[in-house]
Structures are given as structure tokens and as C-alpha cells.
Design goal:
It contains eleven helices and 14 strands. It is α/β, with parallel strands linked by helices. It folds into two domains: 135 residues, 3-Layer(aba) Sandwich (Rossmann fold); 183 residues, NAD(P)-binding Rossmann-like Domain (Rossmann fold). The strands form three sheets. A seven-stranded parallel β-sheet has the order 10-9-8-11-12-13-14, with helices on both faces. A five-stranded parallel β-sheet has the order 2-1-5-6-7, with helices on both faces. The protein has a two-stranded antiparallel sheet with strand order 3-4. Strand 5, helix 3 and strand 6 form a beta-alpha-beta unit. Helix 1 crosses helix 11 and helix 5 crosses helix 7. The longest helix has 20 residues. The chain is elongated and about 75 Å long. The protein starts with 15 loop residues before the first strand and ends in a 9-residue tail after the last helix.
Length: 351
């Protein structure tokens, strides 16, 4: 019998041993149910703490639950791991010699040491697009909330019993509407393209800057970020966080926006220089911001953003939080495990 290639599953009889390391969003039970629709498997379930416990760096990986010990114990004898926040570090990989496949229930396997996985013969799959619709919808909701001052008016009336929010009906304080508004999108991937379609339906004048986008787009393609910023009353960010995009919107870029512009970020916090944004808000050059992601999460108690509540809509990284996302994430990951078990090429694999 020929030796299987590294990372491939050799022909064996009996069920595959899988660890479903879910959390309080992508439930282990959802992963197990999806797996059992794909293959014969023995599943050990593990519940990690996210989002009730924040993720963070763990050893050499980012955005993971601090649970190396629990994961190593659960993976004893397992060939497959399906997880969203499990820390797949060099230490975990080295302690789990039977492991051959990691399927991550996220748009990118940032919780996996890919180099170490390759050295240990472990394939790594992921679930792109699982939260694209939810994040796009949330982005539009945040944009509308910022433009029309919905949270501030709600806080005054429901929180304080005050009718002071009626002042937002004055010409000076009333908000903007999307129809005919120039809105610039930075990034046109799975989320950005959906946001563009939604905004076009509102009648907004959509412009897009994305040097990697190919084919037709909804809206006007703009050749440079600077041009987009100069022409946009609102910008909304949809780029991935990379070395190239970290700090993409800083003091210089914010200064290019027209006075009174609005900034929306439901992508990744470090795309924006948070201190520069606070400066622009305090100076009044940026009229409002809607933020779901931040330079540090959870947002530190001393953040300047908390002092700008009249101009900033803030949510705690909820853009991808829908029940449909949890189900889709489990299904996409389980389908990858099914392909691997049948010896078929994976659809979304990095190693």
C-alpha cells in the first residue's frame, strides 16, 4: 500500500475521531450536527469561552481563546479539529501527532500557526464568506444610525425620558440621508460588494477603491484612495487587515475627507489610526463615526472614544453575530472535513 501524502487521510475503516471545539456562538452541537451529515465520525465536544471571554494573542497566534491545555487534552487520538477560536499553536500541534486536519469556522485561520501546521503535516481549511451577509447588513445599519443619530436620540428618550432629541429635527442638527449621498467603499470583497448593492438600492452615489477587485462593480470605480476620500461624504471600510492596510486611514487620510464626513468601520480596528480619528472628531472635521472594531478589544476604560459618545456609535464587534452565521460556519467547515474524508480536494485550504 502506498504511503499517503502528508496531511491526507489514509484509507481506514471506522469512524473518524473529531474534536468539535466550539464556543458560545458557533456551538459545539452545531458543528457535530453538521459533521454527521458529512461523514461517519466520533465527535468529542469542547466549549471555549468566546465571546463571554475575549479572544487575544495566544503564544504565536492571534485572535484565539487562551485554551492550549484544554485543546491538547481534547485532541488526544483525534485526527480532525473543527474550531473557531481554538489556539492551534506550535505547542498544540507538537502535542497532537495524530492530528491531520484543522477546519476553522472563520474567514481566515488567524488562530492557526500555518508554518507549524505544514511542518507537522496538518492541512488547514477555513470558511470564507460565512459572515459576509451579516456584516454587510450590520454595516448599513451602523451607517444609518450614525447619519440619523438614532442611538443618541434613543438614549435621550428611553434612557432619560427626555424629549431633547427633538433638537435633531432642527436644520443645524438634523442628519444626512443616503439618497444622492457620495459614499466611498474601501474594499470590494464579499462584504463590500454586498454593501455597495444595498447602498445603490438606497440611491447613494457609491464609489469603490479596491486595487484588487476585478470585473464589474456596483458603483463608480476610483483609481486612488486619496481621490475616494476627497469625494466621499461617508467612507466605510471593508479591507482585510494586512501589513499593507494597517493604519490605512490615518491623520493625513482623514484630512482629505470633506468637512463633516462620517467614518464607518465594521472590518478591523487597526485599519484606522484611532487617535487620529479622535482628533478629527474633536476638531469637528469628522462629524461622526460608527465603529464595531477597535485598535484594542475590549476597548480600554480610558479610551478617548467614550468621551465622544455624542458623535460616535459604538458596538462590541457584533458585525458577524447572527444565528445564520454560526450555522453556515459549522456547515462550511464540516463540508471541508467531508471532502478530506472522501479523498476529494478541499475547497478552501491553505496548507
Amino acid at each position: 500500500m502506498t504511503e499517503p501524502e502528508p496531511g491526507e487521510r489514509p484509507a481506514t475503516s471506522g469512524p473518524v475521531r473529531v474534536v468539535a471545539a466550539g464556543d458560545h456562538f458557533v456551538l459545539p452541537s452545531l458543528i457535530t450536527a453538521a459533521l454527521r451529515r458529512e461523514l461517519d465520525c466520533e465527535v468529542r465536544e469542547l466549549t471555549l469561552g468566546w465571546p463571554l471571554e475575549p479572544f487575544g494573542p495566544v503564544a504565536e497566534v492571534t485572535e484565539a481563546s487562551d485554551a492550549e491545555e484544554e485543546l491538547i487534552e481534547a485532541l488526544a487520538g483525534a485526527r480532525v479539529l473543527v474550531t473557531q477560536m481554538g489556539p492551534v499553536t506550535e505547542r498544540v500541534l507538537g502535542a497532537c501527532p495524530d492530528l491531520r486536519l484543522v477546519a476553522v469556522c472563520r474567514g481566515g485561520p488567524v488562530n492557526v500557526n500555518l508554518d507549524a501546521a505544514g511542518r507537522h503535516g496538518v492541512r488547514v481549511c477555513y470558511a470564507p464568506g460565512r459572515n459576509a451577509a451579516a456584516t454587510a447588513e450590520f454595516t448599513v445599519g451602523m451607517l444609518l444610525a450614525a447619519l440619523r443619530r438614532i442611538p443618541q436620540a434613543h438614549g435621550l428618550l428611553a434612557g432619560r425620558g427626555s424629549w431633547e432629541g427633538a433638537a435633531y429635527y432642527t436644520y443645524e442638527h438634523s442628519g444626512l440621508e443616503l439618497e444622492d449621498l457620495p459614499v466611498g467603499l474601501v474594499g470590494y470583497g464579499a462584504v463590500g460588494s454586498r454593501v455597495a448593492r444595498a447602498l445603490c438600492a438606497f440611491g447613494a452615489r457609491v464609489m469603490v477603491y479596491d486595487p484588487y477587485a476585478r470585473g464589474e462593480i456596483h458603483g463608480l470605480r476610483v483609481d486612488s484612495l486619496d481621490e475616494l476620500l476627497r469625494r466621499s461624504a461617508v467612507i466605510t471600510l471593508h479591507a482585510r487587515l494586512t501589513a499593507e492596510t494597517r493604519g490605512l486611514i490615518g491623520a493625513r487620510e482623514l484630512g482629505l475627507l470633506p468637512p463633516g464626513a462620517v467614518v464607518v468601520n465594521v472590518a478591523r480596528g487597526p485599519l484606522v489610526d484611532e487617535e487620529a480619528l479622535c482628533d478629527a472628531l474633536e476638531a469637528g472635521h469628522v462629524a461622526a463615526a460608527a465603529l464595531d472594531t477597535y485598535a484594542r478589544e475590549p476597548v480600554p476604560a480610558g479610551s478617548r472614544l467614550f468621551g465622544l459618545a455624542d458623535r460616535v456609535v459604538m458596538t462590541p464587534h457584533l458585525g458577524g453575530a447572527s444565528r445564520a452565521v454560526a450555522r453556515k460556519a459549522a456547515r462550511i467547515a464540516a463540508e471541508e472535513v467531508g471532502r478530506w474524508a472522501r479523498g476529494e480536494p478541499p475547497a478552501h485550504c491553505l496548507t
